[in-house]
Amino acid sequence: MISRTPAPPSCLAALVLAGTLALSTAPAAQAQEPTATTFPANAQATGAITGGFDGQVWTPTATGLIAFNRTGTQSASFPTIAGAPWNDVTGGPDGRLWAGGQAQLLAPNLLPFTGVPSIAVSDIGTEQITDVAPGPDDNVWFTVPSANRFGFATPAGTATAFSLVGTTAEAGTLVSIATGGDGLLWFTKRFPGSIVRRNADGSLTSFTAGLDPGAQPFAIALGPDGNVWFTDGAAARAGRITPAGVITMFDAVASTDLIAGPDGNLWLAGGSTLSTGGVFTPRSLPADTLAVGADGNMWGVKLTNGAVSRLALGGQQFSNPTRIDVPATGNSGKAGLYPSPIAVSGLQGTVTKVTARLNGVHHRFANDLQVMLVGPGGQSTVLMASATTRSGDLNTVRHSLTGESIAFTAGGREPARRITSGVFSPIDSGFALNFEAPAPTTPSGGLAQFAGTQPNGTWNLFVVDSEGTPLTTGAIAGGWSLDIETTGAPAPPNPPAPPTPPDTPAPPPPPPAPQVIGAAAPRDTTPPTLRVTGVPKRTSLKALRRGLRVRVTPSEPVRLTATVAIRRTPGGSSASRCSPAPAPCRARPRCVSSRGSRAGRDGRSPRGWSSWRRTPWATVPPPCAP
């Protein structure tokens, strides 16, 4: 991030809080219009402002450094130290604040790292250091415009300065400095104007093609698109330069500051923004210099009265601002808050989009960070892991994060890059993950998998330091937040059946379907028959008195009544079948198996019997009197 204090050309005060690389980004988030809250005007900030490792914003004054917490309360300070006023302040790779003053750097500890609070810079006389920024090599770099010098200081407290004299770049005044997406240092230079790159071998290359005539580049910063952006101090213009040195200019506002914002835009003085596509949005907010705070909002200083303001960007529906130290102890392992939960409630419908934001990310070697998001339904995704591998950083020892606000939303998976504040797709180089229980060992997918799920419940963030590189610990100083978009209404229940109109009787229920077991046999409509045997054609009365036994064989089971009429004839009598009479003939069936008979061939007996034949016997009572 960059903040600037205007000054005469001979001593231009400037600030850069180095962004870090983003080769490509997700589209900028469409946040609501920012609103400004201004805190006491007696702060007397002298211009620069930055986010510190302690989660506060720091700014220099005429007498020292002061801090504001997220509520805008002045909460800490470093008193007057020789070398004040301090012109610029930035968060260093080692977690300390670094400020530039007269012939020295101030480096008060915000971490228990070893180091000296004040570092003298030789070879610059009594000139002022006006721009300070984290470099790509774990050092802090600075510019001394009035002496045409630039240099760096190590965390151990050794400072080295270089002169522009004798370099390949033409004479001029180096003003501002930033680390580019290629891992190299980039400067703005005035009188004459150009953009200067420090190559891996230490040589300087100057780029002028594409600049407006008479341009005087001033502020500079890495954009979330991986390009370097700058302002023109001589006109209301801003420019973009690619790693290959191609310059494109855009209409903007005259600005002494430029910084990558949490919303994926470039921010300029007054809160104006410029998208990575060159779309300019003017504003007039009380902010001449700018910084990203650990709360995920923009902060600024109004130079006319030294007042500090917070520019709220909206969003962040749900948040857990509790600091997350990474790791909890030592140089590797899980974070101090593991997991960090956010309870989501009150949303209706199902998820359509999730944006997770890490606020105030500090880490001396960001490639060690691994971050996983787990939703209420158990879905999990890696937001970043080995995200800043150094394969494309020609002279990088380690890549640090110094307070960036980094948002992740769906849009594929990004390759490793240097990271600045902005909005990105998840960044995962595919190396082994080191998450500990209760985190899932393997993520279940990307952020898009949350679409269609229930938003309410507990979302968890798991953070680990995977490598254990000495002195490379850090923190997510401002915690994290979630923005969740939903369908907006709960899924409707199935509609009930329409009621039956009162004047229409309800239809009768349908008859139950017949139970069919096997194949149904055709119905037998043949009337039953009886066969009577054993009736003598002639018999004597004496024999009849003893009883007459006949056999009645029905064609199927029946109940029957039969009579036998006896007619006397000369010389005897005869018996025959006759019409029904009151005397009953009760059958007592005797079942005889016919298995293996004709009934076994077609599954039924002749005349409709199953596999049984019933043989009833009837005893005929004595005949009636003639």
Provide an overview of this structure.
The chain is mainly beta and 626 residues long. It is built from 2 helices and 50 strands. Strands 31, 32, 35, 38, 39, 42 and 43 form a 7-stranded mixed beta sheet that branches. Strands 33, 34, 36, 37, 40 and 41 form a 6-stranded mixed beta sheet that branches. The chain is rod-shaped, with a radius of gyration of 48 Å.
State the gist of this model.
Residues 490-514 have a biased composition (Pro residues). This protein is mostly beta strands and 626 residues long.
Keywords for this entry:
single chain, 626 residues, disordered N terminus, disordered C terminus, WD40/YVTN_repeat-like_dom_sf, P_dom, protease
SSE diagram, text form:
Elements: E1 2-5, E2 13-16, E3 35-38, E4 50-51, E5 57-60, E6 65-68, E7 74-78, E8 88-91, E9 97-100, E10 104-106, E11 118-120, E12 131-134, E13 140-144, E14 149-153, E15 159-163, E16 173-179, E17 185-190, E18 194-198, E19 204-207, E20 217-222, E21 228-232, E22 237-241, E23 247-251, E24 258-260, E25 266-268, E26 273-274, E27 280-281, E28 289-292, E29 298-302, E30 307-312, E31 318-320, E32 324-326, E33 333-334, E34 340-344, E35 351-363, E36 369-374, E37 380-385, E38 401-409, E39 422-424, E40 427-428, E41 457-465, E42 474-476, E43 480-486, E44 530-533, H1 541-546, E45 548-554, E46 564-569, E47 572-577, E48 591-593, H2 599-602, E49 612-614, E50 618-620
Parallel strand pairs: 37-40, 38-39
Antiparallel strand pairs: 1-2, 3-30, 4-5, 5-6, 6-7, 8-9, 9-10, 10-11, 12-13, 13-14, 14-15, 16-17, 17-18, 18-19, 20-21, 21-22, 22-23, 24-25, 25-26, 26-27, 28-29, 29-30, 31-43, 32-42, 33-41, 34-41, 35-38, 35-42, 35-43, 36-37, 36-41, 44-45, 45-50, 46-47, 48-49
